[in-house]
Amino acid sequence: KNTFLFVRAKIKETTAITVTFKSFFAGQFSAVDNLNHYDFLTQEKERFEIKAILGIITYHIYWNTETEGKIEKHIPKRISNENIDKYKYIYHDKEGNEHKICTVEWHKTKEKQNGIIYSNKPTHSKITKDNNVIEGDTRRRVKYENGDIAEYGRHPTKGNIWRLYKSTGKEIELIRMPDQLDYRKNNIKIQYTFSQTQRRYTGPNVLAGFIGALADCNLKLVTTGSCFRDASCFPSSEHVNGKSIDTLYLDNVDEQKFIDSMHKFGFNKQITGAHKKKFNNAIPEKIGSLHDTHLHSEFKDSTIQIKNED
Ligand SMILES: [Zn+2]
Ligand SMILES: [Zn+2]
Predict the structure, then answer these.
(1) Residue 310 lies in a domain
(2) Which domain holds residue 246?
(3) Given this model, what pLDDT does residue 293 score?
(4) How far is the CA of 285 from the centre of ligand 2 (A)?
(5) Distance CA 10, CA 291 (A)
(6) What is d(CA 152, CA 140) in angstroms, rounded to the nearest whole number?
(7) Taking residues 153-179, what's their average pLDDT?
(8) Cβ-based neighbour number of residue 103 at 10 Å
(9) Looking at CB atoms within 10 Å, which of 20, 47, 153, 299 has the fewest?
């Protein structure tokens, strides 16, 4: 927690003209000659804010300009043990207030390629697991020795299919999204709920972008999710590694506002239905009707600026 304190410092023999505090608080003040002590911050409004060392990797999501959001991932020098598998998300509003939105856990898994359709169960590699599941639209999940995953179920437009998500072998991080966000303070609203889907995992960067967009548009969204725990994403192909998020449509005016906010916070590839209104910053799908029910938004990881703290 942040707290406030008055500081009296003893001045030893020194020729320094400024005093710099390090350790658990920071700040710089002019020293005063010929005194053996100095009361800093003697007036009420000069209170000194102490910030505890968070020791947690934190995404700072900034309101920036009308057209641009800014997201920084701050990595502290020391991460406390209990925070080693956690990420924290803080939103900074127009007035410079900080809003603590959530802390989530991350885990490692193998990166997957976009899913390829099969009519029969793929048998290209030794099967290590073959389970019936009920997770979103997935009814069966097969895991292979080489790290690939195949999923079976009903696709909204293609009927019953298999999709094979090939592993690239590379390790990636995924987080489990909070089951909902319902943050309301002053004029800031950051709200979403999930529809039935179980694709509740996503990339850590993607959640930061989503939080920024939700705050920016001030609208409540329903998401049909991103990806499963091990980066697969049936029935979709292009949600692997949690790179994309789907959301149910709002009315046309609010939808455009949301698309623009997502665009501003790093979702640079958005797909809308062929039979929907033509929106700015989104590409209408050419074939089929898949996206007539939901907006697809893919996040560009290079939006995030990484800062190593000292
Ligand atoms: Zn979709
Ligand atoms: Zn999608």
Answers:
(1) no
(2) 57-109+173-305
(3) 93
(4) 11
(5) 68
(6) 5
(7) 96
(8) 14
(9) 20
Give me ligand 1 centre to Cα 38, in Å. 63
Which residues place a Cβ less than 5 A from the ion ligand 1?
236, 246
Q: Given the DSSP bridges, would you call strands 149-155 and 283-284 parallel, antiparallel or unpaired?
A: unpaired
- Pick the last residue of a domain from 148, 172, 196: 172
> What is the per-residue pLDDT for 44?
55
Is residue 192 located within the same domain as residue 239? yes
Average pLDDT value for the chain: 87
pLDDT band at 21 (very low <50, low <70, confident <90, very high): low
The ligand placed nearest to the CA atom of residue 226 is 2
138 and 208 housed in the same domain: no
Give pLDDT, residue 14: 58
Q: How far is the CA of 235 from the centre of ligand 1 (A)?
A: 8
For the cut 70, the answer to whether the pLDDT of residue 203 exceeds it is: yes
Q: Is the pLDDT of residue 13 over 50?
A: yes
In the predicted structure, residue 23 carries a pLDDT above the cut 80? no
